[in-house]
Amino acid sequence: MTGVISGFRVISLTLLGLLALAACSGESEEKPPQVQNDLPASNTPIVGTPITNTQKKTQPIPLGSGFDFYVLSLSWSPSWCLENDPTGRSMQCDADNNHGFIVHGLWPQNEQGYPEFCRTRDPDRVPEALGRTLFDIMPSMGLIGHEWRKHGSCSGLSQRDYFTVLRAARERVTIPPALQSVGSHQKTSAAEIEIALTTANPGLRANALAVTCAAGRVDEVRICFNKDLSFRACGEIDRAGCKVKSLSLPATP
Prior knowledge:
By secondary structure, the chain is of the alpha+beta class. 32% of the residues lie in helices and 15% in strands.
């Protein structure tokens, strides 16, 4: 009788051990729900959608002095190249670079007129190491040096801070797709370009920019900013805009 009881106890203990082992195996196989991480974060723009001014990260802007506001001048590179470098020898006009709007300069401006070639503690020459950091938006050391000497020297900023503000001003502006790359010569007008830019840039108004022209072609777009790079009206710049009703917009390479 004792042997039967002992055998029963052994069987019971074995069954309990198997049940415990099965329970442990079940827990180890259970996987936590997967978190989907292939969706963009709420502050990540969808590819192909122009980044608006409100989506761009706000960085501290070095504040200039000795003037009233800035004018960001964006040159339509194909127009400049047709007039100055039709064979594409320069980096700006090289067909492989496919430049549309490039930065001509960031100009300290007064309500009437503007300062130029101001005295500064910084040298006239812009180091190549600094200039090359701007080649994606301003592809010419000659242009970079000229703009510093004539305009940047009047900003009240160091070379590095001036070019930091210049890049930040360019990044404040969204160029609509129709003005980024043009496959063939087109006809347009200053009004059409202004509408395209004000639509793509919330807060930008027609009285804060001007389209200039030369030889019947779109030449530049000039956009006015406060020192903190918020858009602002600028009557003198606006009134100097192109009055030609029909303009040629040369194709990008």
